[in-house]
Amino acid sequence: MLLLGCHVNYKKDSQILGCLEQALSYGATTFMFYTGAPQNTVRGNIDLAKVKEVEERMKKEGIDYKKIIVHAPYIVNLANNKEEDKYRFSIQFLKQELKRCEELGVSYIVLHPGSHVGLGKSVGIQNIIQALNEILEESDVTILLETMAGKGTEIGSTLEEIKEIIDGVHDKKHIGVCLDTCHLNDSGYDVSRFDELLDEVDKIIGLDYVHCIHINDSKNPISFHKDRHENIGFGTIGFDTLISIIYNKRLENIPKILETPYVDREFAPYRYEIEMIKNKKFDPQLIDKIKKQV
Ligand code: FE
Ligand code: FE
Ligand code: ZN
Q1: How far is the centre of ligand 3, averaged over its atoms, from the C-alpha of 84 (Å)?
Q2: Is residue 282 in a domain?
Q3: Model-level pTM greater than 0.70?
Q4: Which ligand is nearest to the CA of 180?
């Protein structure tokens, strides 16, 4: 089965059940969500009855629960310890977030490694390693380090930096990688030759560490360090390249998640993009269709 999903909204009332229903309405076979607002750390209680219902519904649909992904809020920053209380807060919050993943039955959480904010890369990387070792001590959830675009002082925009972090983490079973096609492009990797890039990932990090792929087109040319996602086929990466990544045999069992932008900030593109991907044929009218919701 094609493991193709998208970002969905976790709402206070419907929780993970709402996520699943949203994903199924888009024709997705997996999904990713923030357990609350992505830009803050306010979190509510988890309704375990809903978790159970989702497990049963997914079994019925033949979808693997283990491929659901949580994304950590992007305000946590493990690289910067200039202000000790903020650094401690990020660590404590992530510990809680991993507990929430356990309650939800989710195995993977995607994390932006962090920004060093002037401390320099090597100090930033050491801060990340130290934090991850503390966080993973108490948990069986796997943290996936996302490859970043290299905006500002972001760490993790090269495979070598990701590898350096993994090397420092004691619990190798619970650390992994999430490749983001837009970020790879923006950080300077040629995603149009993805098989060669996968060889490089395998050589530097090990392909076994990759457990999630974010499928996004990019608004910017290679190496622009911008991180602005574009709808599938409407950016600089292009439809054919993204299709070849989604259907790459080496990535068959890895969930692929769309994080493409809402059209006019209002209309979710995912149902349309997923259908277009399944058809393997680019539709230049897609944006209009999304706007008209036809
Ligand atoms: Fe991300
Ligand atoms: Fe991403
Ligand atoms: Zn991004």
Answers
A1: 27
A2: no
A3: yes
A4: 2
